[in-house]
Design a protein that fits this description.
Shape: globular
Distance between the termini: 18 Å
Number of helices: 3
Number of domains: 1
Structural class: mainly alpha
Largest sheet: none
Length: about 60
């Protein structure tokens, strides 16, 4: 599942960092905290690893 925006990709990267133990989960907030709680490391890798070229800054609703 690729990221739809740069913001979503960044949040997934922060959650992935916490899953791997590089940062503390208590430092997460907002979407990255929700992603940390609800997604596996593999799912986060898929989103965080999406190429940024052509992505919008934030996803339109």
């Amino acid at each position: 599942m690729p990221a739809h925006s740069k913001a979503q990709q960044k949040a997934a990267g922060a959650a992935l960092s916490a899953k791997r133990g590089d940062t503390k989960p208590s430092e997460l907030y907002g979407p990255s905290k929700q992603m940390y709680d609800s997604m596996s490391e593999g799912e986060l890798e898929d989103i965080a690893g999406t190429k940024r070229k052509g992505k919008q800054q934030k996803k339109d609703d």
